[in-house]
Amino acid sequence: MTVTNITTRSGFLLMGFSDKRELQILHASLFLVTYLLGMAGNFIIITITTLDPQLQSPMYYFLKHLSLLDLSSLSVTVPQSIDNSLMDNDYISYGQCILQVFFFTSLASAEVFILTVMSYDRYVAICLPLHYEVIMDPRKCMWAVTAVWLSGGISGTLYTTTTFSIRFCRDKIIHQFFCDVPQLLKLSCSNDYLGVLGVSSFLAVMAFACFIAVTLSYGQIFSTILRIPSAEGRSKVFSTCLPHLFVFSFFLITGTCAYLKPTSDSPTALDLLLSIFYTVLPPTLNPVIYSLRNEAMKTALRKVLSGRQDVCLSLLFCL
């Protein structure tokens, strides 16, 4: 599709990856594998934390909602990109672009908030174990998760409203594999995007506050861990908490850099790389980092799989 054609239509062209057919197929294949792995991992977590009665504590309740966010986040951007590459058609309608911006920014914001809540849950569990059931009672957990989803929706609404209130007077070509706000701002021909920058700055402050809260929580956790006499116990908690802190920091820093760095008319490979770091990798890696390395989760998964095998054998005998 040419630029002259797109100027007569209301949508955009997503030009994130190469226009060479071989590289388009490679991109679609890699994204498809990543998407299937991420979906499978998150679906497994949602299933076993719902079905297993042993996994009904606040930690697993938050993990289930993290997986719901990750599963949804992957589905917002990756399938559209795969379809565009396979069909050799980079067009996305104006309405689809609005929906992508809304759902992606909502889910990304909610993910920052849920990870902050999860860090506090781990802090209470490790540093204040005797008060855990009082502080993290089911009603408070339910209200915390409700606040996470509502805050994400409000963030997404602010981003979407301010982004699509600007006038797009340049060629509607987005040098990205999805409708990303920083790339949309490049299409503005005036200072209309100042409202978006205001929203971005406000949410960046909120994200920084979340980062400080997470850092303080894990700082207290590590301080408590160092007082554990057992070297094996210290190693176990460190191996669990350090990946959590790394993934959260990685997700937050790459996203903040992409949304706050000055926009440029010339696209760079760094822009594309940063977008993959905060859109595709975290939802794919979170199931492994947060859940599937957990012994209780592994045991629950084995129980579910053995139960399915028993059902399958029973059906075979009946036949």
TrEMBL record:
<feature type="transmembrane region" description="Helical">
    <location>
        <begin position="193"/>
        <end position="216"/>
    </location>
</feature>
<comment type="similarity">
    <text>Belongs to the G-protein coupled receptor 1 family.</text>
</comment>
<feature type="transmembrane region" description="Helical">
    <location>
        <begin position="98"/>
        <end position="120"/>
    </location>
</feature>
<dbReference type="InterPro" id="IPR000276">
    <property type="entry name" value="GPCR_Rhodpsn"/>
</dbReference>
<dbReference type="InterPro" id="IPR050516">
    <property type="entry name" value="Olfactory_GPCR"/>
</dbReference>
<feature type="transmembrane region" description="Helical">
    <location>
        <begin position="25"/>
        <end position="48"/>
    </location>
</feature>
<feature type="transmembrane region" description="Helical">
    <location>
        <begin position="272"/>
        <end position="292"/>
    </location>
</feature>
<feature type="domain" description="G-protein coupled receptors family 1 profile">
    <location>
        <begin position="41"/>
        <end position="290"/>
    </location>
</feature>
<protein>
    <recommendedName>
        <fullName>Olfactory receptor</fullName>
    </recommendedName>
</protein>
<dbReference type="Pfam" id="PF13853">
    <property type="entry name" value="7tm_4"/>
</dbReference>
<keyword id="KW-0812">Transmembrane</keyword>
<feature type="transmembrane region" description="Helical">
    <location>
        <begin position="141"/>
        <end position="159"/>
    </location>
</feature>
<dbReference type="InterPro" id="IPR017452">
    <property type="entry name" value="GPCR_Rhodpsn_7TM"/>
</dbReference>
<keyword id="KW-1133">Transmembrane helix</keyword>
<comment type="function">
    <text>Odorant receptor.</text>
</comment>
<dbReference type="InterPro" id="IPR000725">
    <property type="entry name" value="Olfact_rcpt"/>
</dbReference>
<dbReference type="GO" id="GO:0004930">
    <property type="term" value="F:G protein-coupled receptor activity"/>
</dbReference>
<keyword id="KW-1003">Cell membrane</keyword>
<keyword id="KW-0297">G-protein coupled receptor</keyword>
<keyword id="KW-0472">Membrane</keyword>
<keyword id="KW-0716">Sensory transduction</keyword>
<dbReference type="GO" id="GO:0005886">
    <property type="term" value="C:plasma membrane"/>
</dbReference>
<keyword id="KW-0675">Receptor</keyword>
<feature type="transmembrane region" description="Helical">
    <location>
        <begin position="237"/>
        <end position="260"/>
    </location>
</feature>
<keyword id="KW-0807">Transducer</keyword>
<keyword id="KW-0552">Olfaction</keyword>
<dbReference type="GO" id="GO:0004984">
    <property type="term" value="F:olfactory receptor activity"/>
</dbReference>
